Structure formats: structure tokens, C-alpha cells
Amino acid sequence: MGAPSRTVIVGQSYGAMLALAHAALFPGRVPGLVLVDPMNPRFVARERAFLRSTVPDTTDPQTDRRRVIRRMSRTLSAFSAWLGEREPALAMPMVIVSARKDWWGTPAVDAAWRRSHQAMAAASSDRRRMVSEGSHHDIPHEDPGIVVSAILGLLAGMTAAP
To answer: What's the pTM?
Structure first.
């Protein structure tokens, strides 16, 4: 059995950026996206200095986790810029699921995070935003039902389309 030719992709946090990149590279294979509390180019552009301040020293990474963090931190700006040129034009249904509760630890950054999600949702009439009222960033564990609802809603909207 082979992989399906078209797949709805769900990504959380940095994984949402990877989901967006896959959709940008293979738009015919991705009929829709569910992005759960997504890291995104709008946020990266606005909060670049803050994001750099959160990265631990990885000059000599000794573990796989540290090596991944190092690679992500070194490529985030270029990857985000590339994705920022493509994401607004993605012509597919998207559901952006945002956490209501702060988690970055800085009120201005938390507000920028939510605004970036609102801007993503507002970029197209095929996009909508849902808010997980009781969750911090770990929505899949804190409120898995909203993720399931987002997926089912996306699929229902896709089957209802002419």
C-alpha cells in the first residue's frame, strides 16, 4: 500500500512551519492544513531578537536534542523568510488553533503570538481560527478534543465544497 496522493497535514508549534513548507512545495498533495499553536513567519519576523534570547548555548552540542536546536536556530531566519513569501498565497483551507493561556512568559510576546495567528487566519476566506480556552502551548495534550474538532471541521468543509 502506497502513501495517499493527497493528505491533510496537522502540525503543532515548529511542526506547523514544516507543514506549511510541505504545502508550499506540494500544493496539489495537500488539500488542507490544521496548524496547532503555530510558530510562523509573522511571529518570527516580529520577535526575532526575543527568539534568539531563548535558544540555549549550542556551540558544542553533545546530544541529538542540542544538535536539533542548533540546526533550527541557525536556519530559522532563512526558513521563515522563505516561508513568509509563500504562506499568504497558499490556496487551501486552514484551521489555526491557538492557545488562550500565555506561555512565552512575556505579555507582549504572548500578545504578538496571538496576533500572528489572527493574521494568518485573516489572510484568506478559506482560513479560520479556533481558540483553546483552557490551554497553554501544549494543546494536543491539554485539549485534544479541539484538535480533533479542527480536523473534522476542515474535512467536513472540504466535502461540502462543490
So the answer is: 0.89
